[in-house]
Design brief:
The protein has two domains: 26-165, C2 domain (Immunoglobulin-like), CATH 2.60.40; 175-318, Immunoglobulin-like, CATH 2.60.40.150. Helix content is 8%, strand content 40%. The chain contains four helices and 16 strands. It has helices spanning 8-14, 150-154, 288-298, 315-318; strands at residues 46-54, 59-68, 81-88, 90-96, 107-115, 125-132, 140-147, 162-165, 178-186, 191-200, 213-221, 224-230, 241-249, 259-266, 274-282, 304-309. A four-stranded antiparallel β-sheet has the order 5-2-1-8, with no helix packed on it. A hairpin with a 1-residue loop joins strand 3 (81-88) and strand 4 (90-96). The chain starts with 7 loop residues before the first helix and ends in a 9-residue tail after the last helix. The protein binds calcium ion (CA) (2 copies). One calcium ion is lined by residues 22, 73-74, 79-80, 132-134.
C-alpha cells in the first residue's frame, strides 16, 4: 500500500491558478530612453527616496518617494509595483510599500523606520527590492538597489531626494515565508496536537501589501483528507502570531500511515481564499517535514518546535512518489 497524497479535494479546492500572462518579455514594453539622471544601460528604471537618521531615537528613517520608467512585467504593458525594504544583514525584518496597480511610474510616499544604533550604522546596508505584484503567480522581481555608506547620509537633513538606478536582480527564491509550529503526540490517548506559533515574511496577497493569513492543517491518509483544522484569521499582516492548538485524534496504530499538510492561506472577503504556501509533515514527507515528524514520535508527550520554509502547492510537494510501505 502506498500513500499517495493527491486528494482530489485538496487540489480541486485550492490549487493555485498559475497564469502565463505576465511572462511577456519586458523589453517589448520598455519606455523610451531615460531622461536626466539615468545612466546608459539602465534597463530597470530608477527610484527616489529620502534618508535621515534620528539621533535621539536611533532610527534610520526611509521615505520611499517614487520610481520612474519601470519595465513592464504584465501583458497589459504595465506592472503592479511595490518595494520591499531591508536593512541588511537583517533579512528577518522587512517593510514593504503598498502595491500600485498598472503603472510604470508609481508614487509611493511611504515612510519606514529601522531602529539601529549609531555605532552600527556604518556596517548596515539598505536594500530595496522592486517587485511586480501578481495575485495568481509568483511576484516578479523587477530589480534591486543597495545603499551603503549610511553614515554619510546621517549628517544630512534628509530633505533632498536621492535617486538610484534599479539594477536587474537575480531572481530570489519563491519567498513565500516561513511557518513555526510544534508537534506533540500522546500515544496512549492517540492525540496529535499541532500548535501553530507564528509565521514570518509571508508573501503579500493583497494590494495593501499585506495578507490576511490563517493556517489550515489537513490530516491525510492514502491521498484522502480525513480531517481539517484551522486557526483564526489575522488581518493585514505578513508576520502573524497565533499560538493556537489544532488537535487531531490519531490512534497509535495509524500514526505511521498519516501525514499532515499545513497550508498558510490568505483570507479574502470577496472571492476565493488562496494558498500562500504550504509544508507537509509525516513519515513519508521530505526533508524537514520528515525530521520534524520523527522527532515528535521519538519524544512522546513533548511539544517539538520547528521552522518550516513554505513551498508552492505543486503536485510533487503534495505527493510522495517512493513512500515506503508501512503495512
Ligand atoms: Ca502584475
Ligand atoms: Ca486577503
Amino acid at each position: 500500500m502506498t500513500h499517495q497524497l493527491s486528494s482530489p479535494d485538496f487540489h480541486g479546492e485550492e490549487k493555485e491558478q498559475v497564469t502565463s500572462i505576465g511572462q511577456i518579455k519586458p523589453e517589448l514594453y520598455r519606455p523610451k530612453g531615460d531622461q536626466g539622471e539615468g545612466k546608459q544601460g539602465d534597463t530597470c528604471g530608477k527610484i527616489s527616496f529620502l534618508l535621515r537618521y534620528a539621533f535621539n531615537t536611533e532610527q534610520l528613517v526611509v521615505k520611499i518617494l517614487k520610481a520612474l520608467d519601470l519595465p513592464a512585467k504584465d501583458a497589459n504593458g504595465f506592472s503592479d509595483p511595490y518595494v520591499k525594504i531591508y536593512l541588511l544583514p537583517d533579512r528577518k525584518k522587512k517593510f514593504q510599500t503598498k502595491v500600485h496597480r498598472k503603472t510604470l511610474n508609481p508614487v509611493f510616499n511611504e515612510t519606514f523606520q529601522f531602529g539601529v544604533p549609531l555605532n552600527e550604522l556604518h556596517s548596515r546596508k539598505l536594500h530595496f527590492s522592486v517587485y511586480d505584484f501578481d495575485r495568481f503567480s509568483r511576484h516578479d522581481l523587477i530589480g534591486q538597489v543597495v545603499v551603503d555608506n549610511l553614515l554619510d547620509f546621517s549628517e544630512g537633513t534628509g530633505e533632498k531626494p536621492i535617486w538610484r538606478d534599479i539594477v536587474e536582480g537575480t531572481a530570489e527564491k519563491a519567498d513565500l515565508g516561513e511557518l513555526n509550529f510544534s508537534l506533540c503526540y500522546l500515544p496512549t490517548a492517540g492525540r496529535l496536537t499541532a500548535t501553530v506559533i507564528k509565521a514570518t515574511n509571508l508573501k503579500a496577497m493583497d494590494l495593501t501589501g499585506f495578507s490576511d493569513p490563517y493556517v489550515k492543517a489537513s490530516l491525510m491518509c492514502d491521498g484522502r483528507r480525513l480531517k481539517k483544522r484551522k486557526t483564526s484569521i489575522k488581518k493585514n499582516t505578513l508576520n502573524p502570531t497565533y499560538n493556537e492548538a489544532l488537535v487531531f485524534d490519531i490512534p497509535n496504530e495509524n500514526i505511521e500511515s498519516v501525514s499532515i499538510i499545513i497550508a498558510v492561506m490568505d483570507y479574502d472577503c470577496i472571492g476565493h481564499n488562496e494558498v500562500i504556501g504550504m509544508c507537509r509533515v509525516g513519515s513519508d514527507a521530505e526533508g524537514p517535514g520528515r525530521e520534524h515528524w520523527a522527532a515528535m514520535l521519538a519524544n512522546p508527550r513533548k511539544p517539538i518546535e520547528h521552522w518550516h520554509q513554505l513551498v508552492e502547492v505543486t503536485s510533487s510537494s503534495c505527493c510522495s512518489n517512493n513512500s515506503s510501505s508501512s503495512s
